[in-house]
Amino acid sequence: MAHLTTILSDVLATFYSLRASERLKSYPPELLQTLSSQFEQRLKFFHDEHLAAIYDVEGFLDPTAYHTVQITLYRALLRYIGPEDINYYILRNSATGVLRDITSLLQKLTVRRLRAFWWGQISNHNFAIAGGFMMSLLLTSIDDAEVHYWTSQIKLYHDLLQSQSVSFTTTKMAACRMSLLRQNVESTQGVAGSASSLFAGSSGSKQAFCGDFRIDVQE
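User: That's the sequence. What structure does it adopt?
Assistant: Structure tokens below.
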């Protein structure tokens, strides 16, 4: 976990400080892609070195921490790379894969595996951050197919959080937060009908990717 925490600290220092926000505005897409590749390689090394061998071990520690660092990276990059860049779509696909893994984890969660979530306070935030990131991807959907995909995924994730919260208190905060986020989106947008209507009422693609860390984006 110390190794993973170091990677997270570097991601936050590189992308989430006020100084970084100003500096990154001047970076060309190629340099941002280089930063992305470097962090992805570090995360892959961590995964292969520390996680791959223990996935099937009973009592495996909370796997959402690793996915949350991935989310932190992709959330940041999507603030600075726009839809006109092909890397934007590559990043969205990568982010989709991470969120799919977290949803799959909830679907397969058994009573025996609940012991893996040894520090409920941190796991609470990890599940909530994943849900918030799903909302960000919905609000910045690039076409109607993606709107429908994220609408269904958010409903599935919310339902899983609620069903697990009956016996697994770690998902209760995330379930409540998802309820509030869904109500907010529905009250301002109505039922999701198109990508253009969602985006028109949102606060913009950059702002949509910074809520969970309470960071104000300088326009």
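The radius of gyration is 17 Å.
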